[in-house]
Design goal:
single chain, 298 residues, mainly alpha, MetI-like fold, 67% helix, 0% strand
Length: 298
């Protein structure tokens, strides 16, 4: 007679050996991205850094798309008022061979350098004082709020009467057209200096002016350079207006002369030169910021 098959029973686990369910461990932040979950690509990462080579490639791609779109629009247009990039290049070559282009670039650059330099000096001095002292802010808020809404271009005729027809009215127009932007934006930069740094300097025995020189001003340097880089475009904008005030040379004056001659290719070439000068200035100021304030990007 066959033995009955052995039946298997599950013996209950002892009370002390009961297994408790553990909650799932949250995903560990990635050391590369600093975020939990699925790793994001470098292109779509929010506020994340990208590889310098990728940054350079994207910059080149953006420039290629701009020129390609320009070529596409000019090629499909039947109008002669939109030259192609090649026609613009040829127009620029003709201007260079005419012998006046270098003198125009030099004259315009000198006016912007002098006028915007004066505007920056005024903006740094007043901006740091306004951002640091409530009394100075209260004293200057109403006058600046009134004066900055007066169009600087409307003062051109008055500057001609007051300052003559030399370089003074042109430089003054650039100063007036940019100084209030510089003052207010630099004041915001100075007001953003952490209060803890100021209090720590006071605790160590520093006086007000020493705190300004050694705490507020150094901490504001990267912001001041950013302000200078942003408002430089306004200086070139005011240059166009200022060079119509009895100027004898300059890029804006040359554009107006080409307009009267209906030389559209030359006008586009000068616009490209404006853009190149601005881009070079922007790159130089970015490099200055990295060199003087590398700690700000850390």
């Amino acid at each position: 007679m066959a033995e009955p098959a052995a039946t298997l029973r599950e013996s209950p686990a002892p009370a002390g050996d009961a297994v408790t369910a553990r909650p799932a461990r949250p995903p560990t932040p990635s050391p590369a991205t600093g975020v939990r979950g699925r790793q994001q690509s470098a292109l779509g990462r929010l506020r994340g850094d990208i590889d310098p080579k990728l940054r350079t490639g994207l910059s080149v791609l953006g420039l290629v798309l701009l020129i390609g779109g320009w070529q596409l629009l000019a090629g499909r247009s039947s109008s002669t008022l939109l030259p192609t990039p090649l026609e613009t290049w040829n127009g620029g070559v003709d201007l260079y061979r005419g012998g006046e282009l270098v003198g125009d670039i030099t004259a315009s650059s000198q006016r912007v350098a002098i006028g915007y330099g004066m505007s920056l000096v005024i903006g740094i001095v007043l901006g740091v004082l306004i951002g640091s002292f409530r009394s100075v802010e209260a004293l200057t808020t109403s006058p600046i709020g009134f004066l900055r809404y007066i169009p600087a271009s409307a003062l051109g005729s008055l500057f001609l009467l007051w300052l003559g027809i030399d370089e003074a009215p042109k430089i003054a127009l650039i100063v007036v057209g940019t100084v209030f932007y510089n003052i207010l934006m630099i004041a915001d930069v100075a007001a953003g200096v952490p209060r803890q740094l100021v209090n720590a300097a006071y605790t160590l025995g520093a006086g007000r002016w020493r705190v300004l020189r050694q705490v507020v001003l150094p901490h504001s340097v990267p912001g001041i350079i950013d302000v200078a880089r942003i408002n430089l475009a306004a200086a070139w904008l005011m240059l166009v207006v200022s060079e119509l005030l009895a100027a004898e040379s300059g890029l804006a004056l040359r554009i107006f002369s080409l307009y009267r001659a209906r030389n559209v290719e030359g006008m586009f070439a000068l616009l490209i030169i404006f853009g190149i000068i601005g881009a070079v200035s922007d790159i130089a100021l970015r490099a200055l910021r990295r060199r003087t304030s590398s700690w700000a990007d850390a």
